[in-house]
Amino acid sequence: MRASQSTERTSRTPSIVERIREHRGGTPFSVEFYPPRNEVEEQRLWRAVRTFEQMHPAFVSMTYGAGGSTRDRTVRIAGQLAQETTLLPVAHLTAVNHSLDELRGLVGSYADRGIVNLLALRGDPPGDPLGNWVKHPEGLEYAEELVRLIRELGDFHVGVASFPEGHYRAASLEEDTRFLLGTLRAGAEYSITQMFFEVDDYLRLRDRVVAADPVQGEKPIIPGIMPITSLRQVRKIVELSGSQIPAHIEERLARAAGNGPEEDKAEVRKVGMELATTMCERLIDEGAPCLHFCTLNFAKATREVLANLGMAAVPA
Ligand code: FAD
After folding, report:
1. pTM of the predicted model, to two decimals?
2. Span from the CA of 31 to the centroid of ligand 1 (angstroms)
3. CA 23 – CA 264 distance, rounded (Å)
4. Hey, which residues does 62 pair with through a beta bridge?
5. Radius of gyration, CA atoms only, the chain
6. Domain 7-227+288-297 has what CATH class?
7. Statement: residue 204 has pLDDT above 60
8. CB under 6 Å to ligand 1: residues?
9. Separation of CA 140 and ligand 1 centre (Å)
10. Which residues of 206-218 are buried (b: 16+ CB within 10 A; e: fewer)?
11. What is the pLDDT of residue 11?
12. Distances in whole angstroms, Cα of residue 240 to Cα of each of 19, 33, 169, 173, 231
């Protein structure tokens, strides 16, 4: 670790792969948070953090926003997670609107706060995630370059994103696999997938990576799961990621939502919990290395799915 005073602390911090592999007693789980936008959201985040702390996730990740104050909050809160909780944080960072110098500075800020686990992402165009990607004139084009940069800066443990349905900008699944392999060969130790709904898509991604490169295929592909609690919300999230809800799941959720002016939240939630539980059961059977839950900074839904699975010490 070259960046400043945190050497002693960070040298004892485990990597995500170590944390997953040393886990005993079933499949580990992990959770994703996003940087809160205001004081009320921040209080909610900390309530979720304290609940999850009692459930011993393998790690927690903190996403990186499109700009300004949410970016500062990612750095600050990831630091607080490292220093003020028992959790192992992974801080996301993206190449969006950052020069190389800024990216180096950002990695240094994480190191200063005792964070050695980073998720390297290209990110999406701010404002319109599906719009044209424009690289910063002094920045980076692809996540693979960010992986290399972080590795050059010190003893960081780097993860990347993977896409069970293929990234929406990739021309084919084969091309998508080739680019994922590029990030793994550049030194990424694992990947976390975009949230998905069909376990078969995850299994095929895993098969493609193993078939294309058995060595890289040893690296964990951690499935991203979102326990659905609102149809409107999941539609929006999926749309912004350039993905789609499979028709049979959309139909089930729409039936539960009903035809009223407002969706029937309780019914949607019931179906959402069932879907997430069934997916997780199959992922566990198929040997997924960890279950990574997108929490939207709420603990309740994830806790319920974990309780259904009989996993973790679940506080009341
Ligand atoms: P890349 O690997 O750089 O891929 C971007 C596009 O370029 C893809 O279409 C890929 O196929 C193509 N490509 C890659 N390499 C090459 C190459 N050598 N030549 C030609 N084409 C290439 N976004 C945020 O803003 N903040 C976050 O915190 C965040 N967290 C995420 C966490 C997870 C688990 C996931 C799955 C996504 C996350 N995202 C986040 C969204 C992510 O930034 C977008 O999905 C983005 O479009 C792709 O990022 P990437 O890192 O996979 O990029």
Report:
1. 0.95
2. 19
3. 39
4. 33, 91
5. 19
6. alpha beta
7. yes
8. 63-64, 92, 94, 121-124, 142-144, 161, 167, 169-170, 176, 179, 182-183, 192-194, 224
9. 12
10. bebbeeebeebbe
11. 52
12. 31, 17, 13, 20, 14
